[in-house]
Amino acid sequence: MLVRLGNARVMIDCGADWLDHQKRVNPTAIVITHAHADHAAGLAKGAACPVHATEETWALLQRYPVPHRKHICHREPFSIDTVSFEAFPVEHSLLAPAVGYRVTSGRVAFFYVPDLASIRERHEALSGVALYIGDGATVVRSMVRRRDHSEIGHAPIAKQLRWCQEEGVARAIFTHCGSEIVRSDARVVGARVRKLGHEHGVDARVADDGLTLTLDHGIAIS
Ligand SMILES: [Zn+2]
Ligand SMILES: [Zn+2]
Fold first, then answer.
1. How many angstroms separate the alpha carbon of residue 38 from the centre of ligand 1?
2. I want to staple 177 with a disulfide (CB 3.0 to 4.6 A). Which of 7, 13, 61, 181 is the partner?
3. Is a pLDDT exceeding 90 seen at residue 70?
């Protein structure tokens, strides 16, 4: 995903698909949610710009030749140009601890979390955001498993819509779609997600490739 504001072009996650295509995106910064290959392996040949990730994620990406490593901490906002990012720890993987980002520009904020089973500080993460961009692994079937005191895997869209409803988030987009969604008829799944959203008072949709959104304050997401 790419967040654009003024001259800033911030890429959130850089999966294996981007390994030879980073130049095309030409990001001014990259921010990583977790070390799974579909989110970070695009850095395997390095990056020309600063890359932001948590200590836990960097520990797993040690071998990547990334010269400009920025270490970020949970719940400590940092700025890239005029855009502020705050990492919230999410349950998803024990081996590759993940975060979601609350991204703020002026008075508009959105939350981006491509992989998660749950958000620990959900209220702080989602209250007041204009848009939730979430995990499209499944629509209603849960892919969450319990390990000790943690949840791992993927929360279904239906559950994420409940969180949005509870936190008053009016709009949601689901990305990074799993096989359940990818293999189905896009119109059927789209209608199902819209209907589920409607039941929760949320304007919900499935992201299609090339989707570009402009939020207030001139911030564009694609
Ligand atoms: Zn993952
Ligand atoms: Zn993933």
1. 7
2. 181
3. yes
